[in-house]
Amino acid sequence: MLATGVRVPYDARMLPAERNPQQNPSVEHNTIARGSVVTLSYAMSCDGERIEETETDEPLVYLHGTGALVPGLERALEGCAIGERLDLVLGPEQAFGRSDPNKIEYLPRSAFPADAELELGMQFGAEDQNGDEVAVWITDIDAERVCVNGNHPLVDQTLRFEVEVLAVRAATEAELEHGHAHEEGAACEDEEPAGGACGSGDCGCHE
Ligand SMILES: [Zn+2]
Predict the structure, then answer these.
(1) Torsion sign (Cα): 183, 188, 191, 197
(2) CATH topology assigned to domain 14-95+156-178
(3) 88-139 pLDDT tens trace
(4) Angle at 152 between CA 81 and CA 128, to 5 degrees
(5) Distance (Å, rounded) from C-alpha 29 to C-alpha 7?
(6) Closest by alpha carbon to 59, among 40, 44, 73?
(7) What global pTM score does this model have?
(8) Where are the chain's structural domains?
(9) Dist. CA 66 → ligand 1 center (Å)
(10) How far is the CA of 143 from the centre of ligand 1 (A)?
């Protein structure tokens, strides 16, 4: 079940006028497709141990179709409706990928500012060879050197995801342009949206 990126629109004439999203953009958009803003609750487990879960008052909100979630989860959510629950076990390829030794680099401690408080597990942003911002983690450290690892800490893991779809709505134009969800009615919070160029000053987060 691969997402093709092309969705055949359903026949709008089959719906009464007030349910036709083309005529009434405020109408509920209630199954997940590319361009949906989805609210989820989820729990993620590894080896039977729950390692992450959303709080009831702090669900996850994301823009579907942008790779915001691990690929297997985003694919499984395609076409799901509000209230639907999924219980998935995803192998590494469908979750955080396989460990790549090329993403592991040892740097001298002196490559970091002397006053930087570096510790094991610390995450920060770095630039890759293409100049793109990537997340890296410190996975080894001593007085002389620091291991900077671009592999996600959950790489190579098989993970279980228990998910409930709490809400689905159509993304706004600004959200589609920025490539991320905005809190409903709120200004954009992302300092540097994915892709860097949003072109719109609407959200106040870009110059
Ligand atoms: Zn934004």
Answers:
(1) positive
(2) Chitinase A; domain 3 (3.10.50)
(3) 999 999 999 999 999 999 999 999 998 989 999 999 898 888 888 889 999 9
(4) 110
(5) 14
(6) 40
(7) 0.71
(8) 14-95+156-178, 101-149
(9) 13
(10) 40
Which of 45, 71, 53, 48 has the alpha carbon at shortest distance from 159?
45
Least confident of 45-49, 86-90, 153-157, 187-191: 187-191
Ligand 1 geometric centre to CA of 115 (Å): 33
Centre of ligand 1 from the C-alpha of residue 159, in Å: 30
β-pairing, 60-63 vs 36-46, is antiparallel
Q: Choose which CATH entry (2.40.30.10, 3.50.50.60, 2.40.10.330, 3.40.50.150) describes domain 101-149.
A: 2.40.10.330
Q: Could you tell me the distance, in angstroms and rounded to a whole number, from the CA of residue 50 to the centre of ligand 1?
A: 31
